[in-house]
């Protein structure tokens, strides 16, 4: 990885623990993304200068590393913090311009050989995997896209709405598009459309306020009211084809409810 060896050689004398190695690596990934380090701490200082190197005192605090970065066009201002928790490092990167915050947790022993801290050739275990984690989870989206590898955008088939840009997505298609029949609803701008099914029952329009069980279009029983209801309605009492709503259950009489099902209030009061 070009440049990392030179950076590591410039700070190898100050590296005393595996956490220093990981912070150095993450620093180099941020520099590769188009930023330069301007100092340590949270607040700007008069001695801040843009550099690809790590500033003086960058690893004085082994429990909390704090570094500040700025992009070359000075539009992005990053604050990197790394907290040591047992054998892991928890990174937090905040872009003050966009208020974008990202986090990354690194198990130090998975990427650093603690027995070879002074040898660059053997100190890192898997730089490629660590690079992918830093670019995917820590760096801002606009910065991580400047790396070496760039993912090709997958082409997806155009939907019908994409092929017809003038098509109204709220348009309701007809119910019978294959047969060419017109939709059953009427023109809402027609002033005579309201109540048309009631004003003209033979127009074939659906809806309306008049309920006709014989012409509702729903499946109905084969009961013929003109034949009468045994024990209730004699035959011929209802003319054939007349509208008729049965006033009782058709067929056998339903059993009467048990008197104990719905007792009246105070039924056990002897004075009622």
Describe what this molecule looks like in 3D:
InterPro entries: PI31-like, PI31_Prot_C, PI31_Prot_N. There is one protein chain. With 272 residues, this protein is α+β, with helices and mostly antiparallel strands. The chain has a domain of 141 residues: 3-Layer(aba) Sandwich (Protein Transport Mog1p, Chain A). Helix content is 20%, strand content 14%. It has eight helices and five strands; from the N terminus they run ααβββββαααααα. Strands 1-2-3-4-5 form a five-stranded antiparallel sheet. About 4% of the residues have low confidence.
Tell me which CATH architecture of the domain at 4-144 applies here: 3-Layer(aba) Sandwich
Instruction: Give the CATH topology of the domain at 4-144.
Output: Protein Transport Mog1p, Chain A
SSE order, as H and E? HHEEEEEHHHHHH
SSE-based structural type: alpha+beta
Gyration radius, to the nearest Å? 41 Å
Count of β-strands:
5
Query: What is the number of helices?
Result: 8
- Strand adjacency order, main sheet: 1-2-3-4-5
Strand content: 5-15%
Terminal Cα span:
100 Å
Spans of at least 5 consecutive residues whose pLDDT stays below 50 are 144-153
Main sheet properties? 5 strands, antiparallel
Morphology call: elongated
Q: What is the name of the CATH class of the domain at 4-144? A: Alpha Beta
- Helix percent reads 10-25%
| Average pLDDT metric | 76
GO biological process, one term: proteasome-mediated ubiquitin-dependent protein catabolic process
Biased composition (Basic and acidic residues): 151-165
Domain PI31 proteasome regulator N-terminal: 13-138
Domain PI31 proteasome regulator C-terminal: 166-249
């Amino acid at each position: 990885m070009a440049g990392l060896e030179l950076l590591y050689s410039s700070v190898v004398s100050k590296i005393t623990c595996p956490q220093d190695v990981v912070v150095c690596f993450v620093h180099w990934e941020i520099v590769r993304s188009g930023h330069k380090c301007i100092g340590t701490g949270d607040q700007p200082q008069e001695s801040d200068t843009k550099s690809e190197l790590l500033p003086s005192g960058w690893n004085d605090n082994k429990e909390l590393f704090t570094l500040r970065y700025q992009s070359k066009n000075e539009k992005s201002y990053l604050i990197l913090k790394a907290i040591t928790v047992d054998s892991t490092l928890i990174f937090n990167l905040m872009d003050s311009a966009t208020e974008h915050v990202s986090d990354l947790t690194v198990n130090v022993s998975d990427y650093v050989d603690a027995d070879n801290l002074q040898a660059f050739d053997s100190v890192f275990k898997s730089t490629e995997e660590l690079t992918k984690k830093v670019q995917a989870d820590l760096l801002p989206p606009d910065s991580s896209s400047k790396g070496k590898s760039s993912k090709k955008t997958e082409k997806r088939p155009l939907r019908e709405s994409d092929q017809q840009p003038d098509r109204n997505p709220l348009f309701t298609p007809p119910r019978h598009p294959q047969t060419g029949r017109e939709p059953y609803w009427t023109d809402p701008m027609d002033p005579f459309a309201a109540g048309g099914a009631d004003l003209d029952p033979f127009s074939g329009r659906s809806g309306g306020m008049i309920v006709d069980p014989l012409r509702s279009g729903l499946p109905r029983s084969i009961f013929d009211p003109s034949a009468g209801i045994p024990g209730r309605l004699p035959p011929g009492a209802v003319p054939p084809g007349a509208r008729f709503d049965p006033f009782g259950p058709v067929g056998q009489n339903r059993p009467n409810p048990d008197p104990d099902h719905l007792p009246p209030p105070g039924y056990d009061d002897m004075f009622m």
